[in-house]
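To the wet lab folks,

You asked to see what we're planning to order before we commit. Fair enough. Below is the target structure as C-alpha cells, and below that is the sequence we designed to fit it. If anything looks off to you, flag it before the synthesis order goes out.
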C-alpha cells in the first residue's frame, strides 16, 4: 500500500534552560541531515529564556524548509508530578498540547540525527498508538516493569527517547492521561517515569520501529551492527557527549557540530570513581559478543542493577502506602 504523503514532518522536543544548548545541537544535526525537499515543523515544549530561544531560532534559520514553534505550558500543566519534573513528562501531554496535528516524532534532547526522517514519520501505525525501538536485547527492564507495577505485564518494552506518536488515537483512548495517573500513583518508585508508564499502560498498543532510529549506548558498547547504519544516535545513560569523560564514539561528531554552529558546550566534570566505573563497564561490554567471561560479567552487572532497582521501587511503594 502506498504511504500517505505529508506536507510537513512534525517533530517535538522539550527543554529547559539547562538543556537548551544540547537541544540546539540536536536541531542542527536534524536539519543538516534532512533531504532538501523535506519540511520540518519542530515543536519545542519549553520554559526557557529569550536568550536561549534566540539561540535555537538562529541555528534553525541557517537551514531551509523548517519552522520552530515554542509551546508553552499552562499553569495547571506546570504542576510537578515527580522528581523528574513536568518538562520531562511533556511527551505525555502532547495529545492536548498539539491539538492540530495527528502524528509527531518525539525526540529527547540527547540525540544526534544522522538521516532524513521522512520514512520514519510516514511509518504505518496499523492499530498501534505509539511506535518505538525495543529497549535492548536483555529482558531485565521488562522484569522490573512486571515485578514493580503490573504482574500481568508481558510486553516488549520500548525506549521513550525516540517515538512516533499517533496523537489522534491517543486522544481517543486517553492512554497518556492514564500514564499521568500511573506516575501520580507510583511517584518516585517509577524510576524511569514516563517510559515506565508508557510501557505498562500502553503495552497492547505499542509497535516497533527499525532499530537504526534509536541507536543507544548499549548498541555501541556491544558493537552491534546497527551502529553502522544509525539514523538517530541516542546518548542514553551516563555517556553524554557534554561530560568531560565520554567514551561514546559519536561524541566527537556531536562536539564538532556544536563548534561549527557556534554553540558553546562547556564539558561538565565527572568524578574519578565515575570514570573508573564506566571505563571498566565500557571495556567489558565491548567484548560481550566475543568472550564468554565478559558476557557473564556484563549480564551479572545488569542483573544486579535491576535487582537493586526492583528492591528500591518496592521499598518506596511500601513507604508511600503507610
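Sequence we intend to order:
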Amino acid at each position: 500500500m502506498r504511504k500517505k504523503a505529508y506536507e510537513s514532518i512534525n517533530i517535538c522536543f522539550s527543554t529547559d534552560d539547562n538543556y537548551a544548548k544540547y537541544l540546539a545541537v540536536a536541531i542542527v544535526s536534524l536539519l543538516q541531515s534532512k533531504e532538501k525537499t523535506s519540511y520540518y515543523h519542530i515543536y519545542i515544549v519549553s520554559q526557557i529564556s529569550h536568550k536561549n530561544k534566540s539561540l535555537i531560532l538562529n541555528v534553525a534559520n541557517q537551514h531551509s524548509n523548517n519552522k520552530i514553534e515554542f509551546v508553552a505550558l499552562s499553569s495547571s500543566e506546570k504542576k510537578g508530578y515527580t522528581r523528574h519534573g513536568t518538562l520531562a513528562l511533556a511527551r505525555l501531554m502532547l495529545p492536548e498540547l498539539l491539538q492540530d496535528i495527528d502524528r509527531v516524532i518525539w525526540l529527547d534532547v540527547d540525540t544526534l540525527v544522522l538521516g532524513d526522517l521522512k520514512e520514519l514519520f510516514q511509518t504505518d501505525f496499523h492499530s498501534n498508538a505509539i511506535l518505538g525501538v525495543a529497549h535492548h536485547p536483555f529482558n531485565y527492564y521488562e522484569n522490573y516493569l512486571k515485578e514493580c507495577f503490573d504482574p500481568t505485564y508481558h510486553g516488549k518494552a520500548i525506549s521513550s527517547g525516540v517515538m512516533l506518536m499517533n496523537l489522534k488515537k491517543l486522544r481517543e483512548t486517553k492512554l497518556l492521561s492514564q500514564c499521568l495517573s500511573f506516575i501520580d500513583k507510583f511517584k518516585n518508585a517509577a524510576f524511569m517515569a514516563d517510559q515506565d508508564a508508557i510501557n505498562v499502560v500502553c503495552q497492547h498498543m505499542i509497535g516497533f520501529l527499525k532499530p537504526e532510529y534509536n541507536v543507544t549506548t548499549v548498541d555501541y558498547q556491544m558493537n552491534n551492527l546497527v551502529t553502522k547504519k544509525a539514523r538517530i544516535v541516542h546518548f542514553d545513560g551516563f555517556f553524554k557527549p557534554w561530560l568531560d569523560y565520554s567514551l561514546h564514539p559519536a561524541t566527537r561528531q556531536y562536539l564538532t557540530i556544536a563548534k561549527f554552529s557556534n554553540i558553546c558546550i562547556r564539558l561538565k566534570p565527572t568524578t574519578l570513581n565515575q570514570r573508573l566505573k564506566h571505563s571498566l563497564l565500557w571495556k567489558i561490554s565491548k567484548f560481550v559478543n566475543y568472550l564468554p567471561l565478559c558476557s557473564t560479567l556484563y549480564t551479572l552487572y545488569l542483573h544486579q542493577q535491576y535487582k537493586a532497582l526492583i528492591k528500591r521501587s518496592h521499598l518506596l511503594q511500601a513507604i508511600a502506602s503507610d
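Structural context that might help your review: The mean pLDDT is 90. The first strand starts at residue 9 and ends at 16.

Thanks,
Computational group
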